[in-house]
Amino acid sequence: MYGIGIDMTSVSRIEKSMSKENFREFVFTQKELEMFFETEKPKYKSLAANFRAKEAFAKALGTGVRGFNLNEIEILRDGMGAPCMNFYGRAERIMRQKGLKAFVSLTHEGDAARAFVVLSE
User: Which residues of 1-121 form beta strands (DSSP E)?
Assistant: First the structure.
């Protein structure tokens, strides 16, 4: 194992932040935004969990959010609904150079969203 990270936030905080276009563009990829806004009612709980997964990734990496942007990390869902992480740009280079694989778990209940990330070699 290379590192672990966990992070949490209130869903209402992320819902409020989503009204700011620069926040959306700084944090999420276009595919993530499409996934969460595909219905009339946005999926703010899932958005909040995705945001925290990106922060948990930075903790697992041991660098904080340095050397990459949050929107270079993408958390989508596979055919069974499980979250999976994709990396682009500098984040992808870091993962490749270090030979790392990422594993993510997301949860939310009420106004709380949490994410847990494990990086392994």
Answer: 3-10, 73-77, 83-87, 101-109, 112-120
